[in-house]
Design brief:
Chain lengths: 575, 183
């Protein structure tokens, strides 16, 4: 291989090779070290070539293609790198759609390469043919089909550039079998721009000045941080902004861990099951500074009432998000890693400790009404919050927490407590049950030096339970905390609160999870009594490889506080 | 509640397979009906132009345009109200031949494209209201076929916005964007 410049291999020219080899060479140039995938007819040529790249590309064989995408998401979310998947055409491809939708919603950089039938068969309803570019239009940031061997490197360069630049997202490259098999001279040019695509809008200095004026004159401001801070590696810039502005800061679900939970200015999580303070005091705010977040309806409740007495400054990389839900008085388009320091330079040092003290008063109410009963229940079965707190204690709040979707997700988000960034991997926007287990596998591979703990319910675990086989084969030491309440707990909670306790098909009769865990080579323990909880967690933590701790929890516990869907967030309920 | 009005949206894009459906999906998602749509290569080689007419509120049209512009292969999108553009549609009528039809045709300043023993094909260019009005007039005499194109429009403002945008892009390309994150 010749590199035309010494800097970062921008252009590479190589010998004639097959399309499959060209694909793998493209991966190497883009810095890929791990693939998540599943072979099949239309991608066999790539897998055949991969056999010779095993020393340079680690391939994790999942048990279902959905698992490949979620694993790649976990990998991407903890590492900040692009997650890469490889699957076959037809059913292999369609099985990934949920993962793609999840990655698009949660802005996760992914490149999915799908095999496709030979170009001469396209459109003939050939065996395992689906129009995958058509199917994935709505769930990808960009996609394309490659029918010629010589087009593979350029398509891959564009795919990686689009996936990781600006607001990240999933990209699909669909490669016909003949393109994989043909040969062409290898020529790779890394992409640094595309004519029709502006990944990072140019910040408007006037908007920055106007934002600084609003910040300086605000009396009851609140900063709301989202995942944009993490995706933009802007944690330090945020820290400096918070230090100088003195403002209290709340976080969305996906923004969690961007600010340490015990930070004196941190006032909690926003949203439906968020903390009392940032919800109830929403009406009092005279300024909202939204940083890399998109005002999801689970955050805003009724958008009409959200921050109704507040001016809104919206710092956001995606112009389509500005004003989409909540009108921005001052739009600050741009990468928050650039715009936050611009703001910090202009604003005056302020102290909002009196205003923050008001949030602490809310904390005391929440502590008494919700947190203490959740973490120290009077008796009965173990509660989910207790289990989360026990795990947090054992890991001293320093682990990558992966969750599935539902009650355990909310309990983990509320009660784990985070020390450093990129410590929560959860399906926020799409709310994908079954996300947790494969995402935990990817997270452990993406952050091998960190402990990875998965919180999962009995419903969600069984949606992708086959990935225990992946853990077995690839020896991925993830720690699984199964919070088993024999219900689809979150739906049951809604049925209790809003559907007259008619538990329509939310009760689960479960298999023996111990046998399943052991059959897949995981160490296993089940606890039902709270006196054993700390010991069981310690045992799980100390276990050599992967481990599953089943905690038999209270069957009909509810997550509170709760903002009823569509209600103003100030109508947050304790029961 | 904001009132609905007619908007002419022009979308300039790279010539990419499947882009039309990507663009129309943005409207479908928000339950906005496309009144008319035309697409062809623009005056700039390799750049395609879509002209889309919708009736909706100012707020919705603004949000739709941002979502369309978010598509990686879309270069630029512009929105105009009806008074900001000169727009035309073309309509073809195949009408049963009779002396009264020929009279009508002469009165209404239409082009005669073909005359056969038993039918006549005429063309009228104009606004939808005008082509519709002629259709109503011809109907009693037997319209065998009627077809109307989508709207094509040019803007009244002397500035050619896309050219300015492309020039700006060229400037930006000389200082490429840094890639934000690692692989």
């Amino acid at each position: 291989m010749n590199t035309s410049s010494s800097e970062a291999r921008q252009t590479v020219d190589g010998p004639r090779m097959t399309g499959s080899q060209a694909l793998l060479e493209s991966f190497l140039i883009e810095g890929v070290d791990t693939l998540f995938g599943y072979p099949g007819g239309a991608i066999i040529p790539v897998y055949d070539a991969l056999y010779d790249y095993r020393d340079r590309l680690r391939h994790i064989l999942v048990r279902h293609e959905q698992g490949a995408v979620h694993a790649a998401q976990g990998y991407a979310r903890v590492s900040g790198r692009v997650g890469v998947c490889l699957v076959t055409s037809g059913p292999g491809a369609t099985n990934t759609v949920t993962g793609l939708a999840d990655a698009l919603m949660d802005s996760t950089p992914l490149v999915l390469v799908t095999g496709q039938v030979g170009s001469e068969l396209l459109g003939t309803d050939a065996f395992q043919e689906t129009n995958f570019v058509g199917i994935t239009q709505a769930v990808t940031k960009w996609n394309c089909q490659v029918k010629r061997t010589e087009d593979i490197p350029a398509a891959m360069a564009k795919a990686f550039y689009v996936a990781r630049s600006g607001r990240p997202g999933p990209v699909v490259v669909d490669i016909t079998k003949d393109a994989q098999c043909g040969t062409a001279p290898f020529h790779y040019e890394k992409i640094a721009s595309i004519r029709s695509y502006v990944p990072v809008p140019e910040p408007d200095p006037e908007c920055i000045e106007e934002a600084a004026r609003l910040i300086d004159s605000a009396r009851r401001p609140l900063v709301m941080v989202g995942q944009g801070v993490i995706l933009g590696n802007a944690e330090t810039a945020l820290r400096a902004f918070l230090d100088k502005s003195g403002m209290p800061v709340a976080s969305t679900l996906l923004g969690l861990s961007a600010v340490p939970t015990d930070d004196p200015q941190y006032v909690g999580m926003l949203g439906m099951h968020g903390n009392y303070g940032p919800n109830i005091r929403n009406r009092e705010c005279d300024l909202i500074v939204a940083v890399g977040m998109r005002f999801d309806d689970r955050v805003t409740g009724s958008p009409k009432h959200f921050g109704e007495h507040a001016k809104v400054i919206h710092l956001e990389i995606d112009p389509a998000e500005i004003g989409k839900i909540i009108p921005a008085d001052v739009p600050v388009a741009g990468d928050v890693r650039e715009t936050l320091p611009m703001l910090t330079r202009l604003i005056h040092r302020r102290d909002h400790s009196d205003w923050i003290a008001g949030f602490r008063a809310c904390d005391r109410i929440e502590e008494e009404r919700i947190i203490r009963p959740a973490l120290h229940p009077a008796g009965g079965r173990i509660h989910m919050g207790e289990a989360v707190a026990a795990v947090a204690r054992a890991y001293e709040n320093d682990a990558v927490v992966v969750t599935d979707v539902g009650q355990q997700q909310m309990f983990a988000a509320r009660y784990f407590g985070f020390r450093r960034t990129r410590s929560l991997v959860t399906s926020g926007g799409l709310g994908t049950m079954g996300f947790g287990l494969p995402a935990a596998i990817g997270a452990k591979l993406g952050a091998p030096d960190r402990d990875v703990v998965l919180f999962v319910g009995d419903g969600g675990l069984q949606m992708t339970i086959q990935e225990l086989g992946t853990i077995f084969q690839s020896r991925v030491p993830v720690k699984i905390v199964l919070l088993n309440n024999s219900f689809l707990g979150m739906v049951r909670q809604w049925q209790e609160l809003f559907y007259d306790s008619r538990y329509s098909f939310t009760e689960l009769t479960n298999p023996d999870f111990g046998m399943i865990a052991r059959a897949n080579g995981l160490s296993y323990r089940c606890v039902e009594r709270r006196e054993e909880l700390d010991d069981a967690v310690a045992e799980m933590k100390a276990a050599e490889g992967a481990s599953l701790l089943e905690v038999r929890v209270e069957h009909q516990e509810n997550v509170f506080p709760m903002v009823p869907a569509g209600a103003p967030v100030s109508e947050i309920r304790f029961e | 509640m904001e009132t609905e009005q007619e908007y002419i949206i022009t979308v300039f894009s790279e010539n990419k397979v499947g882009l039309l459906s990507q663009i129309t999906t943005v409207f479908t998602c928000r339950n906005v009906n496309i009144e008319s749509l035309t697409t062809s290569e623009s005056a700039l080689q390799g750049i395609h132009k879509f002209t889309i007419v919708v009736r909706t509120t100012p707020e919705t049209v603004e949000k739709i345009v941002r979502q369309v512009e978010k598509k990686i292969d879309v270069l630029k999108t512009f929105v105009y109200t009806a008074d900001e553009v000169v727009q035309q549609e073309i309509a073809l009528y195949k009408v049963t031949r009779s002396s009264s039809v020929e009279q009508l045709v002469r009165q209404h300043n239409v082009r005669i494209l073909e005359v056969d023993t038993d039918y006549i094909v005429v063309e009228k260019t104009g606004h939808k209201e005008e082509t519709q009005a002629l259709f109503r007039l011809l109907q009693p005499y037997g319209v065998q076929q009627f077809v109307r194109s989508g709207t094509v429009a040019v803007i009244k403002s002397r500035r050619e916005l896309l050219n300015e945008y492309l020039e700006e892009l060229e400037k930006m390309r000389r200082q490429p964007e840094p890639v934000r994150t690692g692989a």
